[in-house]
Design brief:
The protein is mostly helical and 190 residues long. It folds into two domains: 129 residues, RNA polymerase sigma factor, region 2, helix turn helix motif (Rna Polymerase Sigma Factor, Chain: A, Orthogonal Bundle), CATH 1.10.1740; 60 residues. 69% of the residues lie in helices and 0% in strands. The chain has eight helices and no strands. α2 crosses α5. It is globular, with a radius of gyration of 20 Å. It starts with a helix and ends in a 14-residue tail after the last helix. The relative contact order is 0.10. About 3% of the residues have low confidence.
């Protein structure tokens, strides 16, 4: 895992009591927490309990975190332990065995993969957020659950249908050059 200076800065600021840093940490790593909860197939109430416990543990132990860049891995491991604890508690409550589709022998590889995915997702969200508004709007038309047709995009943005493809290509090229994606986009793709 690479040292991310933004993560290190957030940890330092949070240790000093910076509320904005705490908010950024929660916003940045909540998708990681939720993805692990989903893997354990927790219901919403149990997943909320896990998330709350993870953030509480972070408040309690942030000062002891030796390596600030290790924050994503720490959050992933605490989430995983809490999910397991919550799953066991749910089994006891229901007096039935819940079938967990989890291979506990491979957890470190899965956690590492989830941390990497969360970092890629965050980098992409940051890169998209820093694109010009027109590019964000155009790309959102293609990324929605039901992507718009070229005719619908043309009407929505007031652009000729023939101009949509080239503009989309320019916006994607701009996205690939984003400094937020350094390390995620190879030189042949940028």
């Amino acid at each position: 895992m690479r040292d991310d200076p933004q993560v290190v800065a957030l940890v330092v600021q949070a240790r000093e009591g910076g509320q904005d840093a705490w908010d950024d940490i929660v916003e940045r790593y909540s998708p990681l927490v939720w993805s692990i909860c989903l893997r354990y197939r927790l219901n919403n109430a149990d997943a909320l309990d896990v998330a709350q416990t993870v953030w509480l543990r972070l408040v309690e132990h942030l000062a002891q975190l030796r390596e600030p860049a290790a924050l994503p891995g720490w959050i992933a491991m605490v989430t995983q332990r809490e999910c397991l604890r919550q799953s066991r508690a749910a089994r006891r409550r229901q007096d039935t065995e819940l079938v967990l589709d989890v291979d506990l022998k491979d957890d470190s590889a899965v956690v590492h993969e989830e941390v990497e995915q969360a970092q890629r997702d965050l980098a992409l969200r940051s890169a998209l957020a820093h694109l010009p508004e027109y590019c964000r709007t155009l790309l959102a038309c293609f990324l929605s659950e039901a992507p718009l047709s070229y005719a619908q995009i043309s009407e929505k943005l007031g652009v000729p249908i023939g101009g949509i493809g080239p503009q989309r290509a320019r916006c994607l090229a701009r996205l690939r050059r984003s400094p937020y994606l350094v390390g995620f986009v190879g030189p042949d793709q940028g």
